[in-house]
Sequence to fold (247 residues):
Amino acid sequence: MNSTTAPGNLFASSEIGVAAAPTTPMIKLTDIEKVYQTKTIETVALNRVNLTINKGEFVSIMGPSGCGKSTLLSIMGLLDEPSSGQVEIAGRPVTSYSDKELAHLRNQKIGFVFQSYHLINDLSVLDNVELPLLYRSSVSGKERRQRAHAALDKVGLSARTNHFPSQLSGGQRQRVAIARALAGNPELILADEPTGNLDSVMGEEIMDLLLGLNRNDGVTIIMVTHDEQQALKTERVIRFFDGSQVS
Ligand SMILES: Nc1ncnc2c1ncn2[C@@H]1O[C@H](COP(=O)(O)OP(=O)(O)OP(=O)(O)O)[C@@H](O)[C@H]1O
Ligand SMILES: [Mg+2]
Fold:
């Protein structure tokens, strides 16, 4: 395997972040279509979407319910495949990546944050944050613990490591979910309505946290939101309607 295809270089880690050129594409979508076919109905969830997200950007995606926002995020996060069209990551079509490289991208370069947190109720805060690192054979138990503590520190929850999710507020749960994404040192965070279940004060806290990660740590963030105020704090607002980008 040569150096340009080595898993460690997929996102050219050393170049991203604050120092990254602002116009280096991280994800490029060309003519993306996604059609869901069930027995009774065919739904065109995405219709010829062309979109480039550059390294270091903080982009929000807005649009009415059902217009394809979560579908778009799943495709950008390599959790789902388009029906047609091309997805490029770091300048290469995903079809040119090996399965191993794709798994590496999914597991180590991309962090997901969801509206409903997706925490495991039977695990402590610390164990929840450590969990994704268990799948990385290269990370020792000691390092796992250190990284989980560091991530929880970053989101201001060092005092809550032994709590269980049910003992936390919604905002705190979302901060745990963000810490879980951060423990893997992702270069890209895909957040699907991260403040959707939160009141405006807690929503603001989460938004400030994401803005800090973007500005100070250079993490590229793509966030779906229904909140116009929050969207306007990001660098670019992409609006969808009925599966297509409208602005
Ligand atoms: N697995 C699936 N099978 C069939 N149809 C689906 C599937 N997933 C999504 N859809 C349809 O695709 C369209 C887009 O769904 P998507 O979840 O991307 O919308 P959304 O913009 O995220 O909506 P919301 O704001 O309500 O979360 C919807 O019409 C939905 O019903
Ligand atoms: Mg959605």
In short: The longest helix spans residues 200-217. The CA atoms of residues 188 and 247 lie 22 Å apart. Residues 1-8, 13-18 have pLDDT under 50 and may be disordered.
